[in-house]
Amino acid sequence: MKVAVLDIKGKDTGRKAELSDSVFGIEPNEHAVYLDVKQFLAHQRQGTHKAKERGEIAGSTRKIKKQKGTGTARAGSIKSPVFRGGGRIFGPRPKDYSQKLNKNLKRLARKSALSIKSKENAIIVVEDFDFDTPKTKDFVNVLKSLGLENKKSLIVLGDSNKGVYLSSRNFKGSDVVTNSGLSTYKILNASSVVLLEGSLEGIESNLNNK
């Protein structure tokens, strides 16, 4: 599948980029996509939630009232969960939410996501570019030229590009990753995926590697 290569002003350069059918033209596997997105979202959870139980509350251990004759339920500690300031019953504890997926399934999920975007004509190939000085304004101008200023976009770089990355940090509507940092969630979360020419070889190599 061939796609026109644009420059940073959104104009056709007259060149075509070849997108591999084995990455951008497969039949999407929805279950693989579901599992990979589920894992990505699970990994965003810190799992540091914690509430103190009665054994962790600071307070007196004396018996607060006599056992019988009060007309109320017996009580042995001010730290009891039934009292205000006492410990919490079955409170949250730290937990690891990470999930394990094998590499082949993750590759299949990412190829499926890219194929979905390809079928939606939501993939744009742009010639490699850089900024001499990181400026958010310059980055926004590139998005304007590509018609993506008011849309969620994912910019995929071939290698680490400090100028483009720093220029994009203050712009909330776009995410910039290298070809090795692609994730199924980020691909699907973007309305358009912008691939720099230098990223194509790395994407196909990473996703077809066995």
TrEMBL record:
GO molecular function, one term: rRNA binding
Name of encoding gene: rplD
TM segment ranges: none
HAMAP family: Ribosomal_uL4_B (MF_01328_B)
Region (Disordered): 46-75
Keyword Ribonucleoprotein: yes
Protein family: Belongs to the universal ribosomal protein uL4 family.
Protein source organism: Maribacter aurantiacus
Name of the protein in its database record: Large ribosomal subunit protein uL4
